[in-house]
Design a protein that fits this description.
This protein is an alpha/beta fold. It is 38% helix and 30% strand. 26% of the residues are buried.
């Protein structure tokens, strides 16, 4: 069994924020290289269940995926695979060949998010722009109500306003709140947070 640390990265999917999320993931991979730290994004990850194993599959650039294989809640194997067809078909073909699996089921978005919050040691949520649909607020509320507040670091760009009600929720659930000025400042904040979170 391997010991790994999963960082769940959340944010809006507007082009600017999504670009920031990609850069954060690359920076975490560089700065924590060799420490078995994996950063996953909700929209590029799927979770599959079989009778004997569970699989977290993260897609990279629509051509490769990393498969985290869990048995009884513990990571047992880690594989990088090239996509031959869709992610679903690639995962199924791989599991059939490697483990003799005949049937898999894919989790819904709700259940996927629930499972990923359970697996993550740290949850980073980025609010970079005001003029987005605010889907990350739904994710934030879900994390708080599921008891993951202490894992959550809410990073917002200076100047982005938060409602009085949201601030009360953040205070009530003791969510960690940080502000940043620009992309480099955001990377610095994330690095500092993870340096201490991953050592504890």
């Amino acid at each position: 069994m391997q010991q790994i640390t999963i960082v769940l990265l959340l944010g809006s999917y507007d082009p600017q924020t999504k670009s920031h999320l990609g850069i954060i993931r690359e920076e975490i991979a560089k700065k924590f290289s060799g420490e078995n730290v994996y950063t996953v994004l909700l929209d590029s990850t799927e979770i599959y269940f079989t009778e004997i194993i569970q699989v977290l599959a993260e897609l990279f650039n629509k051509v490769k995926a990393t498969l985290f294989i869990f048995q009884n809640g513990m990571l047992s194997d880690l594989y990088d695979v090239n996509l031959k067809n869709s992610l679903d078909e690639t995962v199924y073909d791989f599991l059939k060949e490697k483990y003799g699996i005949q049937r898999i089921s894919k989790e819904s978005v709700f259940n996927k998010f629930h499972a990923m919050m359970q697996l993550a040691k740290v949850i980073l949520l980025v609010r970079d722009k005001e003029e987005t649909r605010g889907g990350e607020y739904v994710e934030l509320m879900h994390a708080m109500f599921e008891g993951h507040s202490q894992k959550v670091w809410f990073l917002k760009r200076n100047g982005v306003r938060l409602s009085a009600m949201l601030m009360e929720y953040l205070d009530k659930f003791k969510v960690n709140l940080r502000s940043y000025n620009d992309k480099q400042d955001l990377i610095t904040e994330v690095t500092r947070i993870l340096k201490y979170e991953l050592s504890s």
